[in-house]
Amino acid sequence: CHPVPKPENRVEVCDLSPCPPRWKVTPAGPCSSSCGLGLAVQLITCVQSHQGKEVLLEEHLCPVAEKPLSSVPCVIRMCSYEWSFSEWTECSTSCGNGIQTRQDFCLNPLTRRHVSPIFCRHFPKAIVVRGCSAGPCPEQVVGMGSHEGLQTVTPAVLVTATTATEARHEDLDLPPSAVPWEQTKASEDVCGKLFLNATGVINMMGVESSDCTVAIGRPLREEITVRVLESSLNCSAGEVVLFSGRMMWRTGCRKLPLSLINSRTNTLIVKQRVLLPGNGVILQYNSRTATKKYYQDCDKQLFGPKGEIVNPVQLPDQRQEAVCRTFINVAPQHRIAVRALYIDLGNESNKTHFNYILVRDVSTMKTMVFHGKQKFLWQSTGSQAEIEFHD
C-alpha cells in the first residue's frame, strides 16, 4: 500500500449483549450397525455465547421447533450377508386349509455360500410359514355332542422337540445307558450329534459334509472346556471352525492345535466348515464345576426330545424373587416346539403386564412375549431356546 497514507488504528466498543440461545450439535457417535443402514446418536445441547465464551443453558431456553435430530442415519458399508430361502413346500393337506413352509439360509452374496445364521441375525427376515388351500374336502358327518378322544391335561407348558434321542431331560441326571456315547471315528458321522458325557473326544476330521455341527451339553452348575488336539484346516481356502456358547463366541483356523477354549457355560456348539476332503479338527472336551454362577436356583436345563415345564416351581406360599428360566438344547439338526397347555398370568384388563412368558430363539435372538391366558404354539429356527417366566 506504500505510499498510500496508513490510517490510524482505532478500537471501537462493539455490542456486548449476549447472543441468543442456540442449539449446539456435537459430532455423531459410532454407527449402530456395522453394515447397512444404522443410526448414529449425536449430543444436542442448548448454549449461549457471552463475551467469547459458551455457556450451557437449559433446553427450554432454546427454540424447540429448531432442535436438530438426536439420531441421524448412517451407512458404514453395504452388508456382505443376506437371507436366502428355499422353495415353498407343497401344501400340508390334500384338501382344505393347510400350511406351506420354506427354509431360510444366511448367504454370503459374494461367494453364494451358506454361512452361520449369526451373521444375519440383525437383518429382517421374511416369513417361512404361510397358509394354503388344497380345495374343498369331501363332506363328512361330525358328531357335535361327542366327547370321544378328549383328554384333560395338568397345568403346564409342554415342551417337545422334533427328535427322538435316548437322552432324558431331568437336568442331566442320566444313567450311562441313556447317554449317547461320543463318536471317536469320523466314519461314524458325528455331524448333528449332541454329546452329554462329562468328557470325550470328537473327531470331525474327514467328515463327508462340508458344514458339520456338533453340540455339547452339561448341567447348569458345570462349564465346558475344549482342547484342539489336531487340525488340518486350510485357512487360505476359507476353512474355519466356530465355537459358540451362551457367554462366548470364537472362530479360528490358524494356531488351533493345543489351544484351549473355555465356554464359561454348560453348553457349547462347534461348527466346522471345510472345503477340501479329509480336512477337519479333532477335539477333546471336559466339564468342570463352573467358576462363576451364571444362573438362578430356579433355572432348568433340558436336553431331551420332550418334556413338561411347570411354573412356578416353588410352593404357593413362597415368594418368587428371581426370573426363572428354562434352557432347551437339542441335537443341532433338530428343532424345538413349545406348546402352552394351560396359562393363567392374571387379569389382562389391568394393563400392567408384569406377568408374562418370554420365549427366545437363540439362533436368531428373536423373542416373543405372551400375556394373560393366551395359549400358543412356538417353533424355533435352531436347536436352542430359552423361556423366561417373569413375576
TrEMBL record:
Coiled-coil ranges from the UniProt annotation: none
Signal peptide positions (record): none
UniProt keyword list: Repeat, Secreted, Signal
A Pfam short name: TSP1_ADAMTS
PROSITE patterns documented for this protein: TSP1 (PS50092)
Chief location category: secreted
GO biological processes: extracellular matrix organization; proteolysis
SMART domains, per database record: TSP1
One cellular component term from this protein's GO annotations in UniProt: extracellular region
Subcellular location(s) per record: Secreted
Molecular function as annotated in GO: metalloendopeptidase activity
Name of the molecule in the record: ATS13 metalloproteinase
